[in-house]
Write a structure and sequence with these properties.
This protein has a single domain (5-117), classed as 3-Layer(aba) Sandwich (Rossmann fold). It is built from five helices and three strands; from the N terminus they run ααβαβαβα. The protein has helices at 5-14, 20-28, 45-56, 70-75, 87-117, and strands at residues 34-39, 60-66, 78-82. The protein has a three-stranded parallel beta sheet with strand order 1-2-3. The chain starts with a helix and ends with a helix.
Length: 118
Amino acid sequence: MTTNTSILTALSNDYSFDIVFARQVEALAAGRDIVIGISTSGKSKSVIEGIKMAKRKGAFTIALSGGDGGELAREADIAFIVPSTNTPLIQSIHLMIGHLLCEIIDEQLSAKDEKEKA
C-alpha cells in the first residue's frame, strides 16, 4: 500500500507488521473503494489483514494469489489465482492482471468522459 518507508516502519514498530496494511486501509478506505491484495502464496498475514479490514470498511476486495489461493483468496470478494508454485510465473501473471485492470478502468473512465461531453 505504501512506498513511504517511515509509515511502514512506524506501523510495524508501534503495532505489528501483521497489521501494517490493515491500519492504512482503516484510515483510507471507504465503502465505494476497491482494495487489491497481492500475495504469491496467498498466506501473507499483512495482506490478509488488510483485505479483512477493507471488507469491514465496506470496500470491494480483490485478491491476486498463486498456488491454491490461500486464505487471501478465501477472504476476498473475488480472486485471481495462478495455479502454480513457480514464483516468477505467478508474479508475471499478477503483473499482467494489473495491467488489464488498469486498461479496463481507463476504458470505463474514457467512456464516462465521452458520455458527459455529449
